[in-house]
Amino acid sequence: MAVTTPTPKTRSDARRRRLQSLIPYALITPVQLLLIVVLVLPSLGAAYLAFFRSSFGLDTVWVGLENFRYIFDDHRFIGALRNTVIFVNVVVYLEIAIGLGMAVVLASQFRLQKLWISIIISPYAVSAVIAVLMWKFILEPDTGFINYLLGLAGLDKILWTVIPWHAFMTVALLEVWLNTPFTFLILYAAVMGVSQELYEAAKIDGARPWQLFRFITLPQIMPAILVALMFRYIFAFRTFEVVWIMTQGGPLGSTELLSVYLFRNGFRYYDFGVAAATALVMVVVTGILASFYLWSLYKRMIRDAA
Predict the structure, then answer these.
(1) Cis link prior to 209 (omega < 30° from 0)?
(2) Given this model, what pLDDT does residue 177 score?
(3) Quick one: CA torsion of 108, 111, 117, 118, rounded to 10 degrees?
(4) Distance of alpha carbon 146 from alpha carbon 159, whole angstroms
(5) What is the pTM of this model?
(6) Distance, CA of 217 to CA of 239 (rounded, Å)
(7) 91 with 176: CB under 8 angstroms?
(8) Eight-state DSSP code of residue 157
């Protein structure tokens, strides 16, 4: 059998192909290194710190699960966990309902459609801190514009951030206002991607608008809904600036979320071990939620592919 000896040109072509195959890895390497430095290493450091007692001016001492035992025995942590669960579910499902409703309505062609879309997504273009400060002035009990209008209408003023229930709903609705544009954009793109031929065939068979939505639109955009739910659960679970600027967790702890509890322990009481343990609990809970929605999305994709 004759043995073919590689020519210099063949070796050069093979070397060039190997180098070309490495170009994608070279392009993504800086981003991966940045993620490792900014995200992965601090996360590992926080997880490591959760098992130590640490503060300014004190030696870092290994305490094992003591920090976790402390937070689960702390009534403020339990209250913050309860508030967070209620807050996240109220906010996320309101955003999905409002975003889906607006997406379905705006997917139909009508005049000034682009203007309405611009108005809907405008809150997402505003810095969260600036938006919350703006609403804090608007809702101020004595000089706020909303209570001024209520006074003109002969109605009593509303203490938006003084009464616990009012404060909780005010913070929740403000979070919905800030982040509904994100949900709307995802669902609007999904609704626009549904084939019009399906609607036309269903209309020929006598389907009504509600039946079109239930049996065509909703099943077709369910993967997008799951994606929106997953992202919003993760982001809503770590909501901080809205609560801190509006109420700082008050009144009477009614709006204190896990993020606020973490901030107080880490940057007010300088108990870094307890703060790190709280952060680790938040990561585990959000990971479980994300895994549930990822698994649901994966099963749906496998079913659609079958």
Answers:
(1) no
(2) 93
(3) 170
(4) 11
(5) 0.84
(6) 31
(7) yes
(8) P
